[in-house]
Write a structure and sequence with these properties.
alpha+beta, 7-stranded mixed β-sheet, 16 helices, 31% helix, 23% strand, globular
């Protein structure tokens, strides 16, 4: 654990399974979410390569299969950003999303947590990360702590990890997993001792500062992009000594001067930034660390006396809602004995440019007022039940009671996730809109919709977001197979099949973002490239690990019907014929493998 500027760490790398490990469960809590960042996390948790976004096409397929049914991402309702790229593959992620429906006018779902379990030859391992980072493409300066379970020297029981998982992440873990967390011992970074974990559910009032009551440190230092007079006043009321606070110019100006507080400046953060996949592939950085930081998004409160420090870090801004409630938050309280940990943070804050109060920017204040009005209309929209209906007449989105009362403030439009260019305006006196006039093919069906709201008074002020809406009748597992079949395509079919059966990736030199034009000419690759795709090789693979091979074989058999349906729907006649011919050759081969290992034919 270090706050040296040269010691940036990738959260994705910290959570990636080690060699010989496999993810069995992961629960993520985030306020905002970029779906491409979520895809990067899937590549990290389920893939083999160190460079998440540089994964091969079949590496992506394998990663998704490894993570399917094991990952849950809890996010604030209405805070999934609408990505502009890779939308053909992103519907695979819709089953991983769990929106927490709170009214942000009064309380937000704001914790940032990653909790994951891994199985391997050495038994199971848990990792717990807590900090300030959202699951987005942000390059802001963040702060977090990673704990790893084990039985080595220096590990200790931290009951709060179990209690936080059971309460804040309720319903995401099984009883057996919670029992493991209760018994787990954890290792923390050198020089750092975990004193407490504190958390709060949406709507609760629970102060995080009581642990500091009566402390008399020599100095207080803090980082927080958002502050208010109530939050800073609560700190000053409990902790004596001078305070150096790094925040944004806008937050300082709105809060104004406060006794004992010396302000330092930091650039405003951009915590909901989109992921630029091309940058990640060039640098193979995995967690957006190749680009310079934009601003400071860390939330840290630290007191020092001599060589010792006490620190609170996590998701809570130094505001009333962050420090006391009713926002849902999670923070960790630390005792730090190593100056190499606390010293760089103190130096970073102290060396910031000193701030003084500024006159309010009237133009900015006006824009903020319009943004708040639009946000209030969006919050009112999110409160209303939505439903999707798919039938022969197409795809329709309905909202209970319509939205006539909101149209005076905002214009609203909606689009199917797979046809985002077709934004349908929501007309007055309507309770539903037709997103698609004919049903999409199976591989394009999704419970995701894209919504956009624009201010009536200033149409330039707008916000778009992705929302998951239940789609009755959607067979998500069958859709996933059809989508993967389309993504793999005819040119990679045999390579994909072989990767399932013996783990060999024939697309290792490609990137998962390569489009169809870079994958071949739409016909099957020559069989000579797959001379090892033979019965004797498959049986050798089975002999090495019969249970794993048989599980893979069942997966292949289950997918063949979906692949046949997908290939049969191809528009180009020659490509369709080539695809079905490939499939016709493969089915007898799979039947022969099944018979040879003594399984019953599907």
């Amino acid at each position: 654990m270090s706050f040296e500027s040269s010691d940036g760490a990738s959260v994705f790398a910290a959570m990636r399974p080690r060699k010989g490990q496999m993810l069995t469960r992961a629960v993520i809590a985030t306020y905002s979410l970029d779906m491409v960042a979520l895809l990067g996390l899937v590549l990290a948790l389920g893939g083999d390569d160190e460079a998440d976004f540089a994964s091969s096409p079949l590496g992506l397929v394998k990663a998704f299969e490894q993570v399917r049914g094991k990952l849950v991402v809890m996010h604030q309702l209405g805070r999934i950003s609408a990505p502009r790229a890779h939308r053909s593959i992103l519907p695979l992620l819709d089953t991983m999303l769990h929106a927490v429906a709170t009214d942000e006018r009064t309380a937000s779902w704001h914790p940032k947590i990653m909790l994951a379990r891994y199985a391997g030859d050495g038994g199971h391992e848990w990792r717990f990360w807590i900090g300030s980072r959202n699951l987005t493409g942000s390059t802001d300066l963040e702060a977090g702590l990673l704990l790893v379970s084990g039985n080595g020297r220096g590990t200790k029981t931290i009951a709060d990890v179990h209690d936080l998982a059971a309460e804040l992440l309720a319903g995401s873990l099984q009883e057996g997993e919670l029992a493991e967390l209760r018994a787990a011992k954890w290792s923390a970074p050198a020089g750092v001792t975990v004193r407490r974990l504190l958390w709060r559910r949406p709507g609760e009032e629970k102060p995080f500062l009581d642990e500091w009551d009566g402390r008399r440190p020599e100095r207080i230092r803090a980082l927080s992009p958002f502050i208010d007079r109530t939050g800073i006043g609560a700190i000053l009321g409990l902790i004596s000594g001078p305070m150096t606070l790094m925040t944004t110019r806008e937050s300082m100006s709105s809060c104004g001067p406060l006794g004992r507080v010396e302000y330092r400046t930091a650039a405003a953060p951009d915590p909901e930034a989109e992921v630029r996949v091309e940058d990640q592939q060039e640098e193979a950085a995995g967690d957006f660390s190749d680009r310079p930081t934009i601003g400071v998004h860390a939330k840290v409160l630290m007191t020092t006396r001599g060589q010792k420090a006490e620190m609170m870090l996590g998701s809570a801004n130094l505001t009333r809602r962050g420090l006391r409630g009713p926002n849902a938050e999670a923070v960790v309280l630390l005792d730090i004995t190593d100056p190499a940990v606390s010293g760089p943070l103190a130096g970073f804050i102290d060396q910031g440019v000193q701030l003084s109060a500024e006159r309010p920017d009237e133009e900015r204040e006006m824009r903020l007022r319009i943004e708040r009005e639009l946000d209030h209309a969006i919050y009112a929209l999110l409160e209303r039940p939505m439903a999707l209906q798919l039938d022969s007449a197409g795809l329709r989105l309905s909202i209970d009671g319509g939205i006539d009362d909101l149209l005076a403030t905002a214009t609203v439009s909606a689009a199917s996730f797979g046809a985002s260019e077709r934004q349908v305006p929501w007309p007055p006196k309507a309770s539903e809109v037709v997103l698609l006039e004919r049903p999409p093919p199976l591989e394009e069906q999704s419970s995701l919709v894209i919504l956009m709201a624009s201010s009536v008074s200033d149409p330039a002020v707008q916000r778009s977001w992705v929302q998951r809406v239940e789609l009755p009748g959607l067979d998500e597992e069958r859709r996933d197979r059809a989508l993967l079949a389309r993504y793999v395509g005819v040119s990679r079919f045999r390579a994909w099949l072989r990767s399932l059966l013996d783990g060999y990736d024939a697309t290792g030199g490609e990137r998962w973002t390569d489009d169809a034009a870079n994958r071949g000419n739409g016909t099957s690759l020559p069989i000579s490239q797959f001379e090892h795709f033979a019965l004797e090789n498959m049986l050798a693979s089975w002999a090495r690990d019969p249970l794993r091979f048989e599980a893979r074989l069942k997966g292949v058999t289950a997918m063949l019907d979906n692949i046949e349906e997908t290939f049969g729907a191809l528009q180009e006649a020659d490509e369709r014929s080539a695809a079905l011919r490939e499939l016709g050759e493969v089915r007898p081969f799979i039947a022969a493998v099944t018979l040879a290992i003594g399984q019953e034919p599907a």
